[in-house]
Write a structure and sequence with these properties.
The complex is a heterodimer.
Chain A: E1 4-9, H1 16-25, E2 29-34, E3 46-49, H2 69-79, E4 83-87, H3 89-96, E5 112-115, E6 122-130, E7 148-155, E8 157-161, H4 164-172, E9 176-181, E10 200-204, E11 210-213, H5 242-254
Parallel strand pairs in A: 1-2, 1-3, 3-4, 4-11
Antiparallel strand pairs in A: 5-8, 6-7, 6-9, 9-10, 10-11
Chain B: H1 11-21, H2 27-37, H3 43-52, H4 55-58, H5 63-66, E1 76-78, E2 85-92, E3 95-105, H6 107-112, H7 114-130, E4 135-145, H8 154-173, E5 177-184, E6 193-203, E7 220-225, H9 235-238, H10 248-254, H11 260-280, E8 285-288, H12 293-304, E9 308-312, H13 325-330, E10 336-341, H14 346-356, H15 359-362, E11 367-375, E12 379-384, E13 387-393, H16 394-398, H17 429-438, H18 446-449, E14 460-462, E15 470-472, E16 481-487, H19 490-495, H20 497-513, E17 518-527, H21 534-554, E18 558-564, E19 578-587, E20 604-608, H22 619-623, H23 636-651, E21 657-660, H24 665-674, E22 686-689, H25 702-707, E23 713-717, H26 722-728, E24 735-742, E25 746-749, E26 752-755, H27 756-764
Parallel strand pairs in B: 4-5, 9-12, 17-18, 22-25
Antiparallel strand pairs in B: 1-2, 2-3, 3-6, 4-6, 7-10, 7-11, 8-10, 9-11, 12-13, 14-15, 15-16, 16-19, 17-19, 20-23, 20-24, 21-23, 22-24, 25-26
Helix pairs in contact in B: 7-8, 8-11, 11-14, 17-27, 20-21
Chain lengths: 255, 772
Amino acid sequence: MRAKVAVLVFPGTNSEIETWRICRDVGLDTHVVHWSQAASLPNYDAYVLPGGFAYEDRVRAGAIPAHDPMMDYVIEGAQSGKLVLGVCNGAQIVLEAGLVPGTGAVRKPTAAFTRNAAAHFVCKHVYLKLTIPPERCAITAALSPHALIPAWAAHGEGRLAATDEHLREITDGGHLAFVYAHADGSVDERAVPNGSALGCAGLTNREGNVLAIMPHPERDAWNYNHPDRRQTDNILAPSGGVMLFAAFAQALERL
Amino acid sequence: MRSFPVNGLSDDELRAQAARTGLALRVDELRRIAERLGRDPSIVEAHAFDAQWSEHCSYKSSRHLLRKLPTEGPTVMQGPAEDAGILHLGEVHGSRWGVVIAHESHNHPSQVVPFEGAATGVGGIVRDVLCMGAEVIAIADPLRFGRVEDPESHQRYVAQGVVDGIAAYGNAIGIPNIAGDAYFDERFDDNCLVNVVALGLIREQDIIHSAAPPGSEGWDIVLVGKATDTSGFGGAAFSSVTLDEADEDANKGAVQVPDPFLKNVIMRATYRVFEYLRERKITVGFKDLGAGGIMGCSAEICSSGGYGAIVDLDDVNTAMKNMPPEVIAVGETQERLCWVLPGEVTPDVLRIYNEEFSLPQIARGACATVIGAVQGEKRYVLRHGDEIVMDVPIDFLTGSIRDELPVRPMSERKVTDPARRYVVGEHDAAQLLVRVLEHRDVCSREPMYVRYDGAVRGTTVIPRGYASAGVIAPIMGSPLGVALAVAGNPRMSKADPYLAAAYAVLEAVRKVVSVGARPLGLTDCLNFGNPQNIEHYSELVHAIDGIGAAARELGTPYVSGNVSLYNESKTGNAISASPIIACVGGIDDVSNVVTATLKHAGSALFLLGRPQNAVGGAAFAELLEQTGGPVPPIDYERAIAEIAFFRAAADAGFIRSARSVGNGGVLATLAQMAFPTLQPGHKPLGLNVLPARAWAGDGVGEIEAYFGECGGFVIEASGEDAQALASIAAEHVVLMRIGEVTSNCVMRVAGAALDLRTLYDRWSKPLTEVYP
């Protein structure tokens, strides 16, 4: 049976359609689940938290939705080994819920995705570079080592911030799943759009079943999204950022 | 019913009383109302007519002029009758798909309270598109600001706040910003221009009209959205008078308060309602609340259907108790929509908004609720408490009114004197290029648009900064594409408002063509000074002639638009005449889009179009403290032939990259095509530009050829295709080889070798100071 995936919509979420669409395109039985349908969440095998401004980014992006009743189900699912993927605002929510890096208690985050260094929203094309061994995280297991994934960074609060001690835990514990890179895979400060600590673009938890990434691979996931880099004939076919979702689908097949 | 005394008052007394009450209605208009009603109007009625008869709602000094614009053609699915127009994009699985387009200004509010003013501008235009039954798919933001060099100036505060407001609203509701432009000029010091364009997507059979449908007598009038508060009271009238510094506080009160978070939820709930109504094939009426608030919207939706309406103000969800009836009736609280629904579906629609999407839990007091009914008698009636506070013939309230204003004939229009001696003189083209790239109207806009989400929805094909127009592929599973571009050059307007208006159309069309699209249609937002001033009114009349002539020649109809007058301060500093045009293009298969980034070393570079010596309003001329002489007339026959040639060459796959020649001219355009290749991960490319004398044509000066802004396209094609390209060039087409692409990151021009990285640094830096 095909894995059943819920794409969660909180009040203020805005990227549910493209996220639903790429999950569908990689063969997953995908459903958009809205906050008034929270009770149906236990019926799903995996959760994807898409981008947006859930609860208006009040307090800090992700802080309020981390306490939404929908997250009770997500946290419970994550603890029982279900896969959870958070993208952008979804990553902020997953982090505020304490699911990544997962070095503290639930809903007691040990780090934050906070105000960009430039102190404003930044929309820029970027690349995610895998820095952990692929199998360290179930969702990245099907990627090749050092995989480079095109994506759009589009956020005002994406800079990883934590105490030195917690940053050490992140690096030592293998939580730093992705960093920002240039198109040729090189890594330097210029590649980081938001001043993120460690150049961090994505985090995973100890168990490797939760992944939080700030940039949006689903916005560069079809041939038409990158006209200058087009290689195949079918303009509507998934490409580029689809890699991550294909790996997510493969992980669900294995479960 | 508290009345507003008219009868028995002298003109002076009446004028004073209107001013005290905050009404913009003139004495003759007040007398006309009292005469028609056969009594003094009530306070509520006075405010209602004040809103409905404002320029903003009634177009009283422009409607008859707008009738002269072409509005018909094979691409028109719906012309300019409602909140937005619709253009035919193409067919998918037997359904005809349309692109909805609306274009508005939010100039006065943005000048007073920049962040909120600009944000509510986006909010309003998005509702205009939504209320056609469409899914909102893109926005664009043409902006005009004053001089921003002084960090402490109000002009800089405005320029920053406006961009932040557009970003905050557009990003939160999740609509990609794919096009826009910005000009900076002293003529906008006291009055910025914030225009916003929104696009929507709809199947023809799903269009919802802003009218009570036939047979809707007795149906419910349902108000959806934010609780009505005191914000935006007098907004329509406020935008129809000149800004007066002394009234700053009253002006601030007239600006609405944005709530993009609530709007995000209302949009999604409304999409769900669309789905519900389509499943049941129910025809309804739907309209957004803008100028004139509840009164304006409910009156217009019912009168357009040939009905009257009765609304009970006590049933309106208000943010506080004891609000005066006139504020509930005409206040312009944001994030509200109005449905006309048959009674049997009302409970389901209310349930979708109030329960499934839990509006009352999203924002205090927000909800969907029945506030009145459509009535057969053609009167507009408002109840408040035990009283009837308004009872007027509905067609008198919403019907068209017209002001006759004096205008100068076209032959007397003010243009830069062609006879005035204009000498470019000897200049080093390479040095001048650096200065042109730094010019405030030429330099990189990235510091502005980097704040806008350009890729949300996952449909973006060409984001901002990659070409002269933005492109999206909005229909899931279809290769159909939509291109969008805006244009309107205020520097050229100073030289000749008529030709500048015509060039705005031509430039918007060329931009859309430059990405490989076929132009489908246009919108116009006409931003001018006080129409009571014969100079400004004449500029408006001539500009409408200009945009009409160009659109007719190019075969591109107008399907919607907006007029914003009174753009001047009390000191009389009026803006440059600013007709701003948006053009929508259709692309049958986005595989064939053309981008503006150079592709291969060894490619040949062509200029499509002939340079001219007249360069009125060009950026370089200003740098040299020259007028640039007159604006060159448009040879439409040639412009049309060039566009046809470009499209044929693009369809044949001959074009590797291209850009329409815009601000800064040919050299600045070429440099901008090379800049993206400097990014890490790209192969850096360079340019060899042939001397202008080799391609500019007889008698055209070198500097004019390099920096003139009046048009054409720069095209990159493979060397082998050059012959084939030249062979499809028809009689009227001038296609000149102007250089080649190299692999060395250097731009060779006029005997100099310029490091492209240095040029890029100079071009990308100026606006980072305003937008750090």
